[in-house]
Amino acid sequence: MRSFRRLPLLCLAAAITQTIHTARAADTFNADLVIYGGTSAGVIAAVQAKKLGKSVIVVGPDKHLGGLSAGGLGFTDTGNKAVIGGLARDFYHRVWKEYQKPETWRWQKQTAYGNKGQGTPAMDGVNRTMWIFEPSVAKRVFEDYVKEFGIPVHRDEWLGGGGCNAGHTIGATDELGMMAVDGKAHVRDFHVTLLRLLGLDNKLTFYHAGRFKQLSQFGGTVIKNLIA
Questions:
Q1: How far is CA 196 from CA 79, 222, 228, in A?
Q2: Fewest C-beta atoms under 10 Å: which of 47, 62, 120, 178?
Q3: Does an H or E element contain 212, and which?
Q4: Residue-range definition of the domain harbouring residue 114
Q5: Is the Cβ–Cβ distance between 189 and 222 less than 8 Å?
Q6: What are the pLDDT digits (tens) for 60-93?
Q7: Higher-confidence residue: 44 or 184?
């Protein structure tokens, strides 16, 4: 049995879990922050935690880091790039640095690259940023982040236990598994239920962009049959 535990610290940037179990050897890992999911947000949240002097673990079902950013969504919708800062801009700067390496240009020569972005150049040499990139490049950047900041990553680890009814099926789908036909639940219900399992009040608010927001912004009801 393997478990990951966090000490009291609230992370609103990525899903967190107090205890994750898998049917393997008995290992326990303690950290100030446990982030479930090696997505782009998960990795960046982990980096920020390390910069703040906190211990952090990234754990999740993913085998590759970066989520959609490293999975093909590399034509970035940015608009006014001047407002992009912090670790987000650092990511695009690191992408730019990767494209300064001749070995990155596997499919065409750099001189043949059209350099067209969404209204601005894809490769901004003045600001040393690159806004359009290949999945393999983004993946290297995320892997470099966890290596540079010494962030432990536990891959292929699935969320289990945590107060859920073991082996319990709720509802049913059609024959093709496309549509729910019984025991329907809104995605907000799932979010609220997850918060309950994490020991968080779904009415918890946080201040962002000039106003208070809730983790379950537009309601949701706990799926009671899911909780043991």
A1: 37, 8, 12
A2: 178
A3: strand 211-214
A4: 77-133
A5: yes
A6: 988 999 999 999 888 877 778 888 899 999 999 9
A7: 44
